Amino acid sequence: MKINLLFIGLISFLMTSFQVKSEAQEFGDYYLKNRLLNTKSFTIEVIEAMPETEYMYKPANDVRTFTALASHVLYSIEWNIALMKNKPIKWQPGDENRFSRQQLVEYANNEFNNLIEFVASAKASPELTEKIVDVLNHNAHHRGQMITYLRIKGITPPEYR
């Protein structure tokens, strides 16, 4: 009887351990998906916060305009997706000041959707995770610059959720 209870306890423990591991893996995927979705929506909110009449604003001569910062962030996503697919493209962003607000929002939606789709279909690996974190950090860095531009112009930036 004691052996049967011990055996049942051991089996229950092992099943619980596997279930916890499975839930942790799902949580990891869920967190990454939410992080990408939150970054997408926050980046678009920041792009939309600046009046389009101020898109060429830059606080100093030797820095990018607001629209160029947004363009740079979005092109870097496109460039990094190609790199992660082992189909690198040359860094040729073109005129970073060429976009209207609507075009930047569409570009942001397209590139973030492409990134989310790629991540959802890619095989998990430390290298992939590192590259995604690099993309998110790069986005946050330049989005922070865009937020500074908003503040200089007296515009309260959106809050990250």
Radius of gyration: 22 Å
Which of globular, elongated, flat, extended, rod-shaped describes the shape? globular
Strand content: under 5%
Main sheet: strands, sense, barrel: none
By helix and strand content, what is the structural category?
mainly alpha
Pattern of helices and strands: HHHH
Structural description of this entry:
- This protein is an all-alpha fold.
- The chain contains 4 helices and no strands.
- Helix 2 packs parallel to helix 3.
- The model is unreliable at 5-28 (pLDDT under 50).
Short summary:
It contains four helices and no strands. It is an all-alpha fold and 161 residues long.
Features of this protein?
161 residues; mainly alpha; 4 helices; 71% helix; globular
Please write out the topology.
Layout: H1 2-49, H2 66-84, H3 101-121, H4 126-152
